[in-house]
Amino acid sequence: MSKTQRALKKATNQAAVAAAPRLRRLSSSQWVDIVIVFVTGVLFAIAWPTLQLTHHVPAGVQPVIAGLAALPLLLVRANPALGWAISAAGALVIPIVFDRVDGYDFPWQVVHVMVMMVLLVAVSMRAPIPVVGVAWVSTVLLFLAEAPGQDGRGWAVGLTALVLFGLLIRWLVLSRRQLAQQEEVTEVERARRAILEEKARIARDLHDVVAHHMSLVVVQAQSAPYRIDDVSPAARAEFESIGATARDALNEIRGMLGVLRSDGQLAEDAPMPGLDRIDELVEGSRRAGMQVSVDRAEMPGRLSDSAGLTVYRILQESLSNAARHAPGAPVRVVLGRDGDLATLAVVNDPPAGVRPSAVVDRAGGHGIAGMRDRALSVGGTLSAQPRANGGFEVVARVPAVPGAAASSGHVAPA
Prior knowledge:
Among the domains are: 3-148, no CATH class; 291-399, Heat Shock Protein 90, CATH 3.30.565. The protein is built from 11 helices and 5 strands, in the order H-H-H-H-H-H-H-H-H-E-H-E-E-H-E-E. It has helices at residues 3-24, 28-50, 62-70, 80-97, 110-126, 129-146, 151-227, 233-261, 278-287, 305-325, 366-377; strands spanning 291-296, 330-338, 341-348, 381-386, 392-399. A 5-stranded mixed β-sheet has the order 1-2-3-5-4, with helices on one face. 24% of the residues are buried.
C-alpha cells in the first residue's frame, strides 16, 4: 500500500470517528427526516431514467416530471396535505400533456402512484377530517377517470382501504395519547394526594405536640395568679406577659396548621406579620427581661409582604438567640435601607460576667441556617458572626420589592 493510500485511509478513518458522535446525537425525528430524504432521492433517481419508458417527454423536461412524481414525498411529515395536492395535480396534468408510450396502458409512473398513496395515508393520519375526505374523494375520482377498464374500480377500493387504515392508525395513536395523558394526570393526582396526606400528618403531629403544650402554657400562665397565694404585682405582670407571648405563638401555630391542612389555599386570609408588628415583637422581648433598643433609619417607600415577613422572622429568631445565648446582655436592632434593599442588623454584647474568649460561636445552629434560607428565598443575603468583644451580630439585606438584587455589603450597626 502506497503512502498516498495509507494517508487517504487514515483520513477516512479519522473523519468516520469524528462523525460518529454527531450521528449518535441525532434524535429519532432527525433520523426519520434523513430516511425520507434518502428514499425520495432513490425514487427520483428511478423516476427520471424510466420516464422515457412510460411517456413521451422531451429530455429537458424529464427532470421536472420526475420531480413531480417523487419530490412531493419530502412533505410527508411537514405538510402531507400540500404534498398530496402537488402529487395529485401532477397526476391530473401529466396524462393530458404527455402521451404514453405504446404498450404502456397506465397513466402514471409506478413511482408517482407509490408517492401519491403514501401521501394519502399520511393525510388520513394527520390532516383534519374534512381534508381527509377531500383527498380521498379526489384521489378515487382521479383513478376512476384515468385508470383503464376495471382497474379504476379496483384502485378505488384499494385507496378506500388505505384511507381507512390511516384513520385506524390515527385513532389508535390518539387513544394512546389520551391514555398516556390520563395516566399522567392520575400520577400527578396520586402524588398530590400523597403530599396532602403527609401535610395532614404533619399538621396532626404539630397540633398534638406543640399546640397542645402551648395551650397548657397559656392556661397555666393565666390561672397562676388565682391558683397561687400571695402573688406579687410583679409576678402577676410576668404571668400575663408569658400568657400573651404564648397566645401569639399559638395563633401563629394555628395559622401554620391552616396552611398545612388546606389544599393549596389558605383556610383564612389572615395577615402575615411584617414591619408593622416589629414593635410588638420588641415589646414582648422587653417584657421577658431583655434590654432591646431599636434604631429606625429611613425605610424603603414600599416593602413587599414577603420581604416584611422575612425581616420579621429574622428579627424574631435573632432576639430568641440573643435571649438564649447572651442572657442579660443589651441588644441593638437597626432597621434601615440601602437603595432598594431593606436592611436589618441585630447586635448583642457578650453575656454578663463571661469573657469574650469563652463565648460560644453559634453561627452553625439550625436557627442561623433557617434565617439564611429565609433571606435567600426572597433574593437577599444574611451574615451571622461573632464580634471582637465577644458579642454576636446578624446582618440581613432583603430586596424591598421582588427583583431587586442584594449584594453582600455590610450594614454597620448603630
